[in-house]
Amino acid sequence: MKVQSVKFTCVFLAVLGISGLISDPLYAHSFGERYDLPLPLSMYLTSAAIVVLISFIIAAVFLRQSKLVNLSPSIQLSWFLPPGSISRKITKVIVQVLGVALFFLTLLTAYFGDNETFNNFSPTFVWVIWWVGFTFIVALIANVWPIVNPWRTLALWSRVFKVEKRRLYPEKLGAWPVVITFLIFAWLELIAEGPEIPNTLFWLILIYSLYTWIGMAIFGINNWLQNADLFSHFFNLFGRFSLFNLESNNITLRVPGSGLTHDKPLHFSETFFVILLLSTVSFDGILETPLWKDLLGYISENQLIRPLLIELQASGVDIIILTKSLALLIMPCLLLVVFLMFCYLSVKAGRSKMQLTVAAGHYVLSLVPIALAYHIAHYIFYLMIAGQQIIPLASDPFGYGWDIFGTQNYAIDIGVINAKTVWFISIYAIIIGHVIGVVLAHYSAIKIYQNHKQTLMSQIPLLLLMIAYTMLSLWILSQPIVE
Amino acid sequence: MKLSSIVETASLTLLVLILSLTPISLHAGNKTADVLVNIVQGKIEGVDTLRYNQNEKVAITINSDKPMELHVHGYDITLNLKANELAILEFDAVTAGRFAVTQHDAHGGDSHGAIFYIEIYPE
Question: Under CATH, what is the fold of the domain B3-121?
Fold first, then answer.
């Protein structure tokens, strides 16, 4: 009975999906604009110098202090929503209901609303408010995604799914399903034309929902989310940086970034996921630099490739999308090779017999603060401006001309945040992110080596890598955005 | 602890370097004077980025060999150009940022990429 109904649902959704995709009208509109001014040369050089200076100061501090200091002091906030209390239960239910309500509002507006991107609640909500804005909250304040997650909440409420393990998740798979689905998601977000169209967005959300619920049905809700779900993985990773830790029984206040320390090295698939995440964060910025434009120009004018390109174009392949897609695949591999190279140097310098993948698994999380810092610098202006779109859309989510809150005619104020403020937020974020990254790497090394000299030697290659990575972020910010 | 003293000396040298670099003005370095923008076949001739300081008046004289509708993003200003007839793009640079100027086609979309950019530097 149950199996039949699932089958029926699948067929029904598939038919709906096909009819929906076919009737999609084509729009060519870039989603949301960015007005970021390139970082002035003086600021670029100053912050670059500060980054190098601070790296050396941290190294000097660690020269004197080789003992494993407690880098993660935390305060238990036992008075704040204590476990088992009514206030905690009520808050949880409110957040869950909010998550589910927004989920349905997104689906409904995406399906029934006006199909023009800026007249519809769903694209702005999904791509700006949730994907960019919510990430800021998770990374800086607390990872509330497990509670907000509407797919989890709905699964819990339905009581159809088993909460805990139903079947053992195959060890061998590791985080590879996450890597593959995240690649698809990144492609949709950064390259594909269409995910900003409400109708297409609807089908994408539906496909993901189906995938998630099938996974939950097979492995159990939490088992699936912990092991194979890309968004849970993503928010969990950035959430390890945040100020509040919600994972333990009591809510705890901790030093930002201290959640990124760990005792066991990450599985190689997890390491690759982190690297993939880092590269996609920088990818969006690199694609807007004049260098990328020149590179595209060079490729298209290259006599060797040109005939092939013309042939491909004739057979209906979009060359730009193809090149971008290749770049999206090549970038993480390139970054991985560079990262492994520096890990190898670090292992050699520290005279350790550690396996390379193990060393990579130890150090990779220390790169997360640098990636997060760039993420903030790259998106803060965009979030402040494109995010305002949600104000008129809240009044008229379907684009039917409603005016629920009286904000339908709200005009976007592009002066809401000054370009100079954006510059300062960017460089402070990048410098602080770099500091936390360097400290984390030292912290990991102390745990691995115990021997003072080995620790220090092993840190030199990593320090250089981190400086290079931070410089890359600064360099991208100093480049003018070209379309 | 010889190594640490080397590191400290290096750090100090860098600090001096930084302090000497810091007090540089953030204003538009090579500010654009009154210019004539010449658009030939939908492409700009010469530099493609015009720079102004915030709260100045932007006045750009534009000549195009084809009729088109120009669109300044962010400020959301449109300007109709007739073939080979000078037109002036004028506005107060209230907000800082980097704004693309694109060509609106018949459908109201702008799929041709930016013709040029206007950068307005904060005060």
Answer: Immunoglobulin-like (2.60.40)
